[in-house]
Amino acid sequence: MIEETGFGLIPLLRGLLGVVCVIGVAYLLSSDRKKIDWRLVGGGLIMQLLFALAVLYIPFVGGLLEGLGKIFIKLMDFTQEGINFLLGPYASKANGFVFLIHSLPIVIFFSALVSMFYHWGIIQKVVGAFAWLLRKFMNISSAEGLVVSGNIFMGMTESPVLIKNYLPAMNRSEVLLVMVSGMGTIAGSVMGTYIGMLAGDDPMSRVLFAKHLLSASVMAAPGAIVIAKMLCPQTEPAVDHIANQKEEKKHKTALDALADGTSTGVKLMVNIAAMLLVFISLVALMNYVTEGLIGRYTGLNDWIARVTDGRAEGLTFQFIVGVIMAPFMWLIGVPAPDIMLVGSLLGQKTILNEFVAYSQMQIWKDAGMFIYQKSIVMSTYILCGFANVGSIGILLGGLGVLAPEKRGMITRLGIPALIGGALVSVLSATIIGMILG
After folding, report:
1. 361, exposed or middle or buried, with CB in 10 Å at 0-12, 13-18, 19+?
2. Please, where are the H alpha helices in 300-353?
3. Does the pTM of the predicted model rise above 0.70?
4. Which of 93, 131, 269, 329 is the most buried (most CB within 10 A)?
5. Nearest partner of 339 among 324, 351, 355, judged by Cα
6. DSSP 8-state assignment for residue 247
7. How far is Cα 250 from Cα 368, in angstroms, rounded to an integer?
8. 138-189, pLDDT tens digit by residue?
9. Residues of the chain with confidence (pLDDT) below 70
């Protein structure tokens, strides 16, 4: 049975401790601690806090996000019509192939829509509004504001295209912000897949997870600025690039854009399916070694099952990363009974990818392993980002093409960007958990 937590002094203090810990990690890893702009850090944290409060306690804002979430869900329903046409009666009898048949095709449809909306200039206008807000309150350049805002809706290699003419002139701090914002957010084209993975066919759960995933994506924007500018403060002269969005259109017609977006979506879907196949198989291999061999013949499996009251099966990969990350999960305010589960999810996301972690979260959620609803919500925010080892290569490849003269700098910033992206998601989860109580 999942329990609700109530707002109180202890959860609030643990949440504040969590924020201090996340900021402390960024401070310790900073390349120049004396140059950190604490006014920018404070402004970003206030923006995140106010947005989180508005989402949870202001009916209009919460209702707006729920409305946007319902639009996402309706688009997912439209995708189902295409699946029904292609598969006929097999579409509703997928049995073990539910994710492959019902969740992954959403990527194709969403990718096509994003491409078409971009052709019409809709995404540019929305991104421009967010960019203006970030520049106004956080004192960053126009190009930085544009790419950070773009990452709310687009992928880590798609958003930098908005500022491709300005990447060669960017300094180290600005380039790291581009990379951290890519790692710390998700693309709109995959959000529908996450909703389908976590909520299944339950309408209320779909709206709930859509609301929180949208909230996490928006909160990640100021969070990315805070973390990136702490890891690498602005020490070099900055040029306020005027990001010109009125460039020649890539596609001649909306249908051309739709077709190109569809092709991109197909490639993305195949890539996701292949990664899931390989990584989940890899986890099974590791579990065979740790649980099937080491744990079995040393008796550790029985001991672990006994001390965890059956919540852990034995010396699995999930258990090991959960133990490693558990203390940090307690510090950021995750309810004590669930710290190993949430810690394991963060470890799986970072070492493997967020799709594997969300898949594991869905399995544990359906099995009733989470004790507190707060843990499920915080996990949703923690996993909402592309910060994993594999993404370093994707980001290096994408930015390296756009700014080949920056390839050396981009390569050196790969690990700091990964750490920064992970901290962005954890910071958002900590703030939302602190408010939940």
Report:
1. buried
2. 300-307, 317-331, 339-351
3. yes
4. 329
5. 324
6. P
7. 48
8. 778 778 888 888 888 777 877 787 777 778 888 899 999 999 999 998 877 6
9. 1-8, 89-104, 189, 237-250, 437
